[in-house]
Design a protein that fits this description.
This protein has one domain. The protein is mostly helical. 64% of the residues lie in helices and 0% in strands. The chain is elongated.
Length: 140
């Protein structure tokens, strides 16, 4: 699925936007810790939708604490990730849905994901500028 392409820039933030002692926003620390979304990706790949759903919802919940410059972008990205996890769940329960239902849902999600490129780019630029983080490359 296309979600892998920008999974790295989809980030979780949990701190207020005050500065750390080194002058970077406090938000940079949790951003760096979860930038690769490894737990979410692993949960989706192993079909653990409970963990995947919790990780996806963290994006939405924690985006509320994001700096104003990227808050709307992270909120939208989080919502798209929640939709992705829901689609995976729907596909696992495909007996309840017709092939047409799944196709429409996939097309809708792909459309949403394609619009996430610009949002993801803004978050990536912010992280690079404010935190010195490269979200498109594995951290570590």
């Amino acid at each position: 699925m296309r979600w892998h392409r920008f999974a790295a820039p989809i980030v979780v933030l949990a701190a207020v936007t005050s500065s750390c002692s080194d002058g970077t926003p406090a938000f940079c620390t949790p951003l760096a810790e979860v930038a690769d979304l490894g737990e979410l990706s692993d949960a989706i790949e192993r079909g653990d939708l409970d963990v995947a759903t919790n990780e996806a919802r963290r994006l939405v919940d924690l985006a509320e604490d994001a700096p104003p410059e990227i808050r709307a972008d992270l909120t939208a990205i989080g919502a798209a990730v929640v939709d992705l996890v829901e689609l995976v769940g729907e596909e696992q329960r495909a007996a309840d849905l017709t092939a047409g239902d799944l196709t429409r849902r996939r097309e809708q999600l792909n459309s949403e994901l394609s619009r996430m490129d610009e949002r993801s780019d803004r978050v990536t630029r912010w992280a690079r500028r404010e935190c010195g983080l490269e979200l498109n490359r594995p951290q570590g």
